[in-house]
Amino acid sequence: MTKKKELSPELKAECDAAKALFMSKKNSLGITQASLAAAADISSAAVAMYLNGTNPLNAKFASVLSRQLGVPVEKFSKRLAKEINGLTSAPEMAVGFGGSAAEIVRNMLAHQGKGLTEDARRRLLAVAEADDDGALEIDYYRPGAVGDEVWIAHYDVRAAMGGGQIPHDYPEMFQDVRVSPQHLREMGVEFKEHFHLKMVTGWGQSMAPTIKHRDPLLVDVSVREFAGDGIYMFSWEGHLYIKRLQWLGDEQINMLSDNPRHPPLTIRAEDTYIQARVLLVWNAHLL
């Protein structure tokens, strides 16, 4: 496992300042890491990694934190305040200053989209054009139905079945998978909406023989809380895992491996950030 590079003193100081403001105002404003995560459309684990100085602050999170705390971005990051001011002062780069969402995306693709596939370009632009009509979807990889078949995004997220993987802030996509939701349900896979289904990759041996190293996994990203004993993808202590979780009571969870060589571990529920529930190993092993 590669150790995550520590932030520079300047970036760490920004995180410390943001955390100090959050801690000083959270009780009076009734803000929690979970509510902050919801406002920023990220996980609670990602919020913790910003505030604890594991990941550097970015403009999006800084803007949300500023609004939630009622303080200017300059209070914790002059660097990001300058960056945000630069973005909002450019008429061609902001919807509120003369440009549509589609125009913004076209501009972005022209300058920064050289590494994207044509399909990714098409989907990004389609979402932006939908936004101009007031129909923007939060997940721009939401697959569309083709008959009874839908596309499920396969993300480059390696969730460790062992020592843990440091999660990416912005996962890339592998090749999508085309499946039939009706067929999945006939196999016993339970889910509400097919656009909540994603593919990730298991990494390691601790869940063998149920999940083997590099097995593709079908997960439901709408499950963000413990919903009964089962296999989950979750963050704990800044790392991403795929393990069985079993509720012990008194805010304690048992983290279990199917490989008997890996002993169980008791962890606290408040330190565990569930990202998804694993529904199916893509080798016909129903979970």
From TrEMBL:
Keywords: DNA-binding, Transcription, Transcription regulation. It comes from the Bacteria. PROSITE patterns: HTH_CROC1 (PS50943). One of its GO terms (molecular function) is DNA binding. SUPFAM superfamilies: lambda repressor-like DNA-binding domains, LexA/Signal peptidase. Residues 27-76 form the HTH cro/C1-type domain. InterPro entries: Cro/C1-type_HTH (IPR001387), Lambda_DNA-bd_dom_sf (IPR010982), LexA-like (IPR039418), LexA/Signal_pep-like_sf (IPR036286), Peptidase_S24_S26A/B/C (IPR015927). CDD domains: S24_LexA-like. Transmembrane segments: none annotated. PANTHER family: FELS-1 PROPHAGE TRANSCRIPTIONAL REGULATOR, PTHR40661. This is S24 family peptidase.
